[in-house]
Amino acid sequence: MNGPLVAGVELGGTKMVVLRARGREIVEQVTIPTTSPTETLGAGVALLSRWHAQEPFAALGIASFGPLRLDQSAPDFGHMLPTPKHGWTGADIYGVLSAALPCPAAIDTDVNGAALAEARWGAGAEGDAPSDCLCYLTIGTGLGGGFALNDRPLHGAMHPELGHILIRRAPGDAFAGACPFHGDCIEGLVSGPALAARFGVAGDQIAPDDPRWDDVAHDIAQLVGTILLTTAARQVLIGGGVGMGRADLLDRVRAKVVAQLGGYLPFVDAASVATIVRTPALGDQAGPLGAVALAMDMINRQ
């Protein structure tokens, strides 16, 4: 394996993956449960420090769940903004982790990182040239979305917050939604906790032919259509426990995307939709490799 040794942290709502990689090849990774910021980040710092003592890192990439403050001029840069994740609002993700290593460090959302990795090494790299606009969605504990635009993660005033978009509901769907901020935003309709509230049991315990999946597929298709219409993304990749765990749901979503768009986008039809709306090519490694991509970019900027 060639290339400098880099460190990566993918911080999720239920687990944190800490890794070291040479180039894009992950040589070791450890999973740590996400509990409190002090306990979780402290365990990450201890591991990174031990690895760095064995062989120094050239850079650190942090791909974290959000919302995050990514404005480097802000006094709370790298901190967690108000979040439903208990105890994590205000946590200094970047400060704690970057202080552990005397090397350049970068932070972005986990979904922006995953989009970047997929654009370079996954679904976006399967054609003749890397995708110039790719969206990565994760549907699990929450719903997040990120973009790789011309080989750079997308953010401005903030980062994309696709999970809190309000979509047009399916006729007759009376589910109130489960988001503590907005009720029936898309996260409040189709995330793992939302499915449990909607169905009364976890989504993986519901039969594939249960008619209530039609409303879920409708809602996800509404989000996908919104993304395609507003960003002209070449691909929308759907990952996470809900996204990658039900191939039957993805098929329903594709059919509804085509139907809802009504032929307006000429590049989306029954023949092409399976290549546009699909699972990540990197599978569950898209997130960890996103942290690697962020670290490698820090080296390239030096």
UniProtKB/TrEMBL annotation:
One of its GO terms (molecular function) is metal ion binding. Its cofactor is Mg(2+). It comes from the Bacteria. PROSITE patterns: ROK. InterPro entries: ATPase_NBD (IPR043129), Carb_Metab_Reg_Kinase/Isom (IPR051804), ROK (IPR000600), ROK_cs (IPR049874). It is an enzyme of class 2 (transferase). It catalyses: D-fructose + ATP = D-fructose 6-phosphate + ADP + H(+). Gene3D superfamilies: 3.30.420.40. Its EC number is 2.7.1.4. Keywords: Magnesium, Metal-binding, Transferase, Zinc. This is fructokinase.
